[in-house]
Write a structure and sequence with these properties.
The complex is a heterodimer of chains A (about 325) and B (about 400). With about 325 residues, chain A is of the alpha/beta class. Chain A has 17 helices and seven strands. Classes of the chains: A alpha/beta (about 325), B alpha/beta (about 400). At the A-B interface, helix 8 of A face helix 15 of B.
Chain lengths: ~325, ~400
């Protein structure tokens, strides 16, 4: 089966899961999760799991694979329900989504209705909540304690969630979910994985060059493959890459003040980075005008400072793709 | 027996208690012409043990030197300390006829240093630096039984490493020290002490070969018998009554019986002592220690960890919340909080480094797959100070 390459922000659909190209990514985490889930029974207390990975690394697809695999498995007591975290504003929303999915009577308490349904059908709900960070950002500790208490009761729905980051809500001592999740990390894509996925169909050096500007994720690889399909020569690859993200970085650039734009344009010319005096020489701005903006840009994570000694250091643009875009469009 | 309760500085003379087995072993190794490496957590009594060994070796007629490198941060300072200490203990040769001009000139500079003069060692230039160190090596009397203790070597080298051309300076000093130990038929024996592991430090810099000749020498908590003896000796020195049961109760509470913890809890008990020590007064003394600043040095010295200080603090804070200990995975998740998931391998390595440092320094201990605070006293202090 030939894999269709998804668009920029599109996630592959679960019916495409059997493609071997896709299976090569995050396989280890997938197998570990599916093996553990299938050991669950209807009456035990389960371990909540959260899959953490950068945007585009395949979290949603992994969740959809789990959904599809459980749905197809006739031997398991598990009943998967997929929920998009962006639509969850409270704990009740989670239960309400389940009630709607299961077509249950809306008069009863939603959680109790789910528990009754489970008992009646000898099933156990497997909640697959993608982008769970939205829930944690939108709810307070008390609300989260409520969710944890429900999840920790025997036979209650099992939660597998995804998040772009480990949040303080999972690791701070007084947080409801302190030590409450088993966290599975999706690691960055290595070049060996890239070679395994592409199987010699593409020029690995060109892919590697393009990937060096982007996060090491499967989405970035799809973008790089797409560019190789359009670009007829290696020296044009980066022009295409810069074009691919034109709108995103144009917005980012315009959101910066004039002085910041000037400093960013200057820093984009550096091979590694520039010292304060070098920035001053290029921008012809006074130190007093540069320093506050540098600090602001560090806070906004646009740039970073690498200390050479206690008092000096070099400043550089954090996102290599933004730097590339600036070189193509702002100098 | 009368022991005075000294908290902080290394103890000497009659105030030194126990460690008989360790001293016997160290003496055996030194007499066998071995040089030693003593890496053990801070406050465990390394310097006190080293000073005790010096006392014993002095009795045997050896020349002894104690150099504390905590007092310096530069190569110049290191040289000054070494020169002064060697001069004071008569380690340098005397001026004799036939000595090379180079040696005479270095001896002249040594004289000036030791009377407080300002001396430029010209260590900026590589050739002059090599000449100077070579001459210093030739000026040491290698035929006499000599015992040189160098305390906090790793701490000093760690700081030096951060200076300009630091790695080169560190390699030079370690190689020089090695060359001193390798002089044929030398009777000079060395003891290097440090709470930060010298082996980890040198191996990270590919300089492991510079210390391969040193015999590793460990120092743990006091044996139960020694701990009981120390506490009971301290009681006697203050005319305080403490039954065997209460001594055991105190030591059980401390759990990790290093001299420093026994001394600090005793000082609290002595402060509040009226007629008798009770379990309640021991609990009270313990709780006071957890809420006061006696243990603040453990927090302050984390600044030596430099870029590892913040993650070390995060780990200790987390560990203080659970007396049963915490799995590595939970610690990794804490360090990953708020970071891009792609940093996982970097953070994982950082965690390994931090855990190794905290274990070496005696903050924590690994038991199966979990880590805990080595001392419940320190854990309770940490929880009171940084969590509650």
């Amino acid at each position: 089966m030939q894999t269709r390459i998804p668009l920029l922000h599109e996630t592959m659909q679960p019916y495409e899961v059997k493609s071997k190209e896709v299976l090569a990514v995050n396989e280890e985490v997938y197998l570990s999760l599916i093996n553990n889930i299938l050991k669950e029974t209807t009456g035990n207390t389960s371990q909540s799991t959260i899959i953490v990975g950068d945007s585009g690394c395949g979290k949603t697809f992994l969740m959809k694979r789990l959904f599809a695999a459980i749905k197809e498995n006739k031997d398991t007591c598990l009943y998967p329900i997929f929920i998009e975290g962006k639509s969850v504003f409270s704990t009740n929303d989670i239960w309400a989504h389940c009630v709607a999915y299961l077509n249950l009577d809306g008069e009863k308490n939603a959680f109790d209705a789910i528990m009754d349904w489970q008992e009646h059908n000898s099933k156990r709900v497997l909640l697959l909540v993608d982008n769970m960070q939205y829930y944690f950002e939108r709810t307070d500790n008390t609300e989260q304690y409520g969710l944890r208490a429900k999840l920790n009761s025997a036979g209650s729905p099992i939660l597998i969630a995804s998040s772009e980051m480990v949040l303080p809500a999972f690791t701070e001592y007084d947080a409801a979910f302190f030590d409450g999740f088993k966290i599975s990390y999706l690691k960055p894509l290595s070049m060996t994985a890239v070679e395994n996925i592409t199987k010699g169909k593409y020029d690995v050096h060109r892919l590697e060059n393009l990937m060096s500007y982007m996060p090491k994720t499967i989405r970035s690889l799809y973008i790089a493959i797409d560019i190789l399909g359009k670009s007829d020569a290696a020296d044009k690859d980066l022009d295409y890459l810069s074009d691919y993200f034109y709108a995103r970085y144009q917005t980012k650039f315009e959101a910066a003040s004039t002085q910041m734009q000037r400093i960013l344009a200057a820093l984009s010319q550096a091979e590694t980075g520039f010292s304060l005096s070098e920035i001053r020489a290029i921008t012809r701005l006074d130190n007093g005008k540069i320093s506050p903006y540098l600090k602001l840009m560090i806070d906004q994570k646009l740039i970073s400072k690498e200390a050479k000694s206690m008092r000096s250091g070099i400043y550089y643009i954090l996102d290599p793709l933004f730097k590339l875009w600036l070189r193509h469009n702002a100098i | 027996m009368c022991i005075s309760n000294k908290i902080g500085p290394p103890v000497e003379g009659e105030d030194f208690f126990g460690r008989e087995k360790e001293i016997r072993n160290a003496n055996k190794l030194l007499d066998g012409k071995h040089s030693l490496l003593l890496s053990a957590p801070r406050r465990i009594g390394k310097s006190s043990l080293a000073k005790r060994l010096i006392e014993e070796k002095k009795h045997q007629g050896w020349k002894c030197v104690y150099i504390d490198l905590e007092e310096t941060t530069t190569e110049e300072g290191f040289l000054r300390l070494v020169i002064e200490a060697f001069k004071k203990s008569g380690i340098w040769k005397q001026l004799t006829d036939g000595m090379s001009k180079g040696l005479v000139s270095v001896l002249d500079r040594i004289e000036k240093v030791t009377i407080g003069g300002v001396v430029d060692f010209n260590i900026g230039k590589r050739e002059e630096q090599e000449d100077l160190y070579k001459n210093l090596k030739d000026l040491i009397k290698h035929d006499e039984d000599t015992f040189i203790v160098v305390d906090e070597l790793t701490l000093f080298l760690g700081i030096l490493n951060k200076s300009e051309n630091g790695a080169e300076k560190v390699a030079f000093i370690l190689n020089w020290l090695r060359s001193l130990r390798q002089v044929s038929k030398t009777n000079v024996r060395w003891l290097f002490c440090g709470s930060v592991g010298l082996r980890n430090f040198t191996s990270a810099m590919n300089l492991g070969y510079t210390i391969n000749d040193l015999m590793e020498f460990g120092l743990g908590e006091l044996t139960r018998e020694e701990a009981e003896g120390l506490l009971s000796g301290l009681c006697k020195s203050e005319d305080m009554e403490m039954s065997e049961d209460l001594i055991n109760y105190t030591l059980d509470k401390l759990h990790w019986n290093i001299p420093y913890f026994i001394q600090v809890i005793f000082s609290k008990l002595a402060e509040e002592y009226e007629d008798e020590v009770t379990k309640e007064s021991i609990d009270m003394a313990y709780n006071k220690l957890c809420s006061e600043n006696y243990l603040s040095t453990w927090s302050e010295r984390l600044s030596e960890y430099r870029e590892y200080e913040m993650p070390a603090r995060q780990i200790l804070k987390l560990l203080s919340t659970k007396s049963s200990g915490i799995e590595r995975e939970t610690m990794l998740n804490t360090l990953m909080t708020g970071k891009d998931a792609s940093k996982i391998e970097e953070v994982d390595y950082l965690l390994s480094k931090v855990l190794e440092m905290l274990e070496n320094d005696g903050y924590i201990l690994k038991m199966d797959s979990i880590r805990t605070f080595r001392s419940p006293l320190l854990r309770d202090y940490w929880f009171n100070k940084f969590v509650q």
